[in-house]
Amino acid sequence: MSPEQLLSIVRHYWPSTEEYYLRGEASPELERLQALWQQELKKLDKWWALLDELEVELPGFNIGDGTATSDASFRCIAYSGRTDPHHFAVVGCLSILAPVLTVYGLEFEETEERRRVIRICFEPLPAEMQQPARVMARKIEAGFGASALPREVAETPIPLFVEWRAPPETTLFHALFASRPEIIP
């Protein structure tokens, strides 16, 4: 899909002004997004089956679900099994707005008190993230008929308000997948 086609889709689900956010109300666009989530949540069993498949295909990784209905995608996470303070996770996203997916990585360090993201990694991913990213992308594509969204398209700026993002920093990535990709459970 072209950036223009994707923008046309996401305009239907994200507002072009912050008026409703400032009033603490759901805009008509956000109401449509929540209604779409009610339909998409019927696919949750299929999504959980994907997580089960990832557990088999990615031994040594802890697999989890990072889906949040405030965003516009199902998200799965493969946490590295490393035991040193520096860890990484690979996150696979399946948009509910268009048949597209993306995979990205996070490097973080964990202390007794909290986990701190050191870096968000997009294409090209560091070497240790590439194999789990390929597996995730392949499984999401096969199971849900989505195709990978090229990074240059994902980075297209859009004039919409997506949760905590406002123009000019809002991109198609934020509207299709996650407004705060660094936040995972």
Radius of gyration: 16 Å
The main β sheet shows up as: 6 strands, mixed
The portion of residues assigned to helices is: 25-40%
In total, how many domains does the architecture comprise? 1
User: How far apart lie the N and C ends?
Assistant: 30 Å
Number of contiguous helices:
7
Query: What is the chain-wise order of helices and strands?
Result: HHHHEEEEEHEHH
Strand content: 15-25%
Shape descriptor reads: globular
> Could you name the ranges where pLDDT drops below 50 across 5 or more consecutive residues?
none
| Structural class by sheet pairing and helices | alpha+beta
Give keywords:
single chain; about 180 residues; alpha+beta; six-stranded mixed beta sheet; 7 helices
